[in-house]
Amino acid sequence: MKLHNKKVIQLVSDDFEDLELWYPVLRLREEGAEVVIAGEKAGTTYIGKYGVPIQSDISFHDANPADYDAILVPGGWSPDKLRRYEDILTMIRTMDEQKKPIGQICHAGWVLISAKILQGKKVTSTPGIKDDMINAGAEWVDEAVIVDGNIISSRRPPDLPDYMREFIRVLAD
């Protein structure tokens, strides 16, 4: 198992894209990583766009970036909610400063935009937020997955195998 000593925080709020949250969680656990689910409140059940639930382990407020090797931001509509929490934006900025892997897929780029960490970065996302990414100073490309330093970005569910292959590679290194 490549990631047996790694700990990853997965952000969550309602209306996450079910596959974009669950596929990474399961793949990381298969590789031996500990994945901690962080929501607004600990012990709360959040529901994905297609009705798949997940329960948070901890709250955003109680999450300490120093305790984690990487962070994942799901897609769907939840990034529009997640980017409103200063605790999350601070966590993203801190992890970026420490060059820890930050995974973002689909609309998750909104969180990185609000954290103001995309200036000069090469990224991808769902085409629906392409202009937002560019306006935040990023170079946007239409590819399944882009790795620019510690930021691993992807477009949508069909790209999940490529996304997780690269995220796992970066985290393992």
TrEMBL record:
PROSITE patterns: PEPTIDASE_C56_PFPI. One of its GO terms (molecular function) is peptidase activity. GO terms for biological process: proteolysis. CDD domains: GATase1_PfpI_like (cd03134). Residues 6-168 form the DJ-1/PfpI domain. Transmembrane segments: none annotated. Pfam families: DJ-1_PfpI (PF01965). Belongs to the peptidase C56 family. This is Protease. Keywords: Glutamine amidotransferase, Hydrolase, Protease. PANTHER family: DJ-1 PROTEIN, DJ-1_PFPI DOMAIN-CONTAINING PROTEIN. It comes from the Bacteria.
